[in-house]
Design a protein that fits this description.
mainly beta
Length: 211
């Protein structure tokens, strides 16, 4: 498969038109409640597994399975034929390219995904609701204006009674400090399963040592 993924493209390249806002919309009375609900929904997720599709600005798409365990742990297991892995052990995001035997690590807080993974990132403080015109959808943009190097992320929730907190995380669009955008869309979300911590380890291609 010719798809070439970079760490930057995951952490932060393609946004659907529904997520692009040309100008700030007036705040609604319900925005504070929607933001509080989104924060509660994130905090209510203990573990989650979902299929994902990731796209870049060139229109290339790749899928796989995402496993999340809060606080801070995530694994993007890409589909067969994509020799890459992105995993967080709770403190750093690691991008592994098995084809060229490279490993890159970034602190969670330095990535737009920090809003999803970093327990110290206050989504309620740095988040802002973007009205969507639909009562079923809640869009929350998280950006720390004092830390532009952290980038920004738009978390998209769909109201669903069976999801933690009544809101299901359905996609996100990340913008990193180099202005690269990524959209990740989730489906078939499952919650509350047992996930061992060794799920978030990886085989280091630079050696035979298990990390």
């Amino acid at each position: 498969m010719s798809f070439r993924l970079t760490f930057g493209s995951l952490a932060g390249a393609a946004v659907s038109a529904a997520l692009v806002v040309s100008a700030p919309a007036p705040a609604r009375a319900d925005d504070a409640a929607d933001l509080a609900s989104a924060v509660a929904a994130l905090r209510a997720i203990t573990t989650m597994r979902a299929d994902f599709i990731q796209a870049d600005t060139n229109g290339q798409r790749v899928g796989g399975v995402l496993t999340l365990k809060r606080p801070g742990k995530i694994r993007f297991q890409y589909e067969r034929g994509v020799p890459m892995l992105v995993v967080s052990d709770g403190s750093a995001l690691t991008f592994v390219d098995y084809e060229v035997r490279q490993v890159q690590r970034w602190p969670i807080k330095n990535s737009p995904l920090g809003a999803l993974l970093d327990p110290s990132r206050d989504v309620g403080k740095y988040g802002r609701v973007i009205p969507t015109g639909s009562d079923r959808i809640v869009n929350v943009v998280v950006r720390d204006k004092a830390r532009p190097e952290y980038g920004a992320i738009t978390l998209v929730f769909t109201r669903k009674a069976g999801a933690p907190g009544g809101l299901e995380l359905s996609s996100w669009a990340a913008l990193d400090s180099q202005k690269r955008r990524t959209i990740v869309t989730l489906s078939n979300q499952q919650y509350g399963m047992a996930v061992p911590d060794n799920t978030f380890r990886y085989s280091d291609p630079r050696s035979t040592v298990r990390r």
